[in-house]
Amino acid sequence: MKKLKDSIPVIEEKEKIDAELQAMAEKRKVITKDMPGLIELAKKLQEEIDATRDQKKDLHENLENLDKQLDKTSDKRKTIQGEIDSLKEQRQALEDKYYGQMIDYTKYQYLVNDIKWMKEMQAKLQEKKDAKDRYAQERKERDEKRKREIEERKQQELERKQREEERRLKEQQRKAEREANLRQTEVDQCQKHVEALNDHSVGTNPMFESIELCEFLLRYCQKQLNVPQTTEKTAVNEEKGQKQSSELEKALAQGKI
Predict the structure, then answer these.
(1) Rounded to an integer, what distance in angstroms lies between the CA atom of residue 189 and that of residue 176?
(2) Dist CA 23 CA 123 (whole Å)
(3) Measuring CA to CA, how many Å separate 219 from each of 192, 216, 227, 233?
(4) Which of 131, 210, 218, 225 has the most CB within a 10 Å radius?
(5) Could you give the CA distance from residue 58 to residue 31 in angstroms, rounded to a whole number?
(6) For residues 221, 223, 225 and 227, what is the CA-based torsion angle, rounded to 10 degrees?
(7) How far is residue 31's CA from residue 21's CA, in Å, rounded to a whole number?
(8) What distance in Å separates the CA atoms of residue 129 and residue 122, rounded to the nearest whole number?
(9) Please, are residues 187 and 248 in contact by the beta-carbon 8 Å criterion?
(10) b vs e for 211-226, b when ≥16 Cβ sit within 10 Å of the residue's Cβ?
């Protein structure tokens, strides 16, 4: 009995469920009246869904391919970016090296220019010093040359004076000797002339040729004039000889000869 009592609520609950199922079956009947159209519609929708699913699948595959390509591109990009970073580092290193070498080169050029300027200035200073030394040496040589020339001129003047003095003395001596010789010669000649004048022979007379020429001219003139010869010739010659002898004696006495 107790089991029956206990099963009553279950039966009641079963009845309620059956009632609900009955209501639902009725609803189902009402609903299933349009079921063929819905099925067709469902098929179409299913086909569209399948097509959409296929498109979605294709799209998904495309998306996966795109993702793969994007991954490859990203990997490639990472690789390229790594290369770019490496090249940037190399460029930075090269720029640092370039600018460092440029700085070193600029310093070297400054140093070379400074050394060149120093050498030029040293050369100029050395040139000025050499010119100064050369000028001093030339001036010294000129002074020494001038002194030598003065000494030489003095020596030459002294030698010239000595030569002139010697020449004057020699000239005086020669003049004295020449005057003495000339005086002696003139005395000898005068003596000869006096002796010749005192000698009345015509051949020894120093004027023999002149007397002979005069006699010849006289004879020629007398012949032309038809004048006879006279003995005046002898008298004239004797008078001339005496006159010359007296003049020579006076000159010797006065010291003119």
Answers:
(1) 19
(2) 130
(3) 30, 5, 9, 11
(4) 218
(5) 37
(6) 100
(7) 14
(8) 10
(9) no
(10) beeeeeeeeeeeeeee
Distance, in Å, from the CA atom of 207 to the CA atom of 214, rounded to the nearest integer, reads: 10
Q: Is the pLDDT of residue 148 over 80?
A: yes
Cα dihedral: 63, 68, 72, 78 (round 10)? 70
Spacing of C-alpha 20 from chain mean position: 128
Give the whole-angstrom CA distance, residue 175 versus residue 170: 8
The torsion angles phi and psi of 48, rounded to 5 degrees, stand at -65, -40
Location of structure tokens 């000649």? 189
Task: Give the span between the Cα atoms of 137 and 156, in whole angstroms.
Answer: 27
With a CB cutoff of 8 Å and minimum separation 6, the contacts of 240 are: none
DSSP code, position 256: -
pLDDT single digits (tens) 104-142: 889 999 999 999 999 999 888 988 888 888 888 888 888
CB neighbour list of residue 161: distance below 8 Å, 6 or more residues apart: none
Token duo for residue 62: 């495309």
Tell me if 213 sits within 8 A of 222, measured CB to CB. Answer: no
**pTM of the full predicted structure?**
0.30
3-state secondary structure of 255: coil
The answer to whether residues 193 and 244 touch, using CB atoms and an 8 Å cutoff, is yes
> For 155-173, what is the mean pLDDT?
83
Any alpha helices (H) in 1-34, and if so which ranges?
2-32
Contact 245, 197 (CB under 8 A): yes
Place of tokens 């990997």: 75
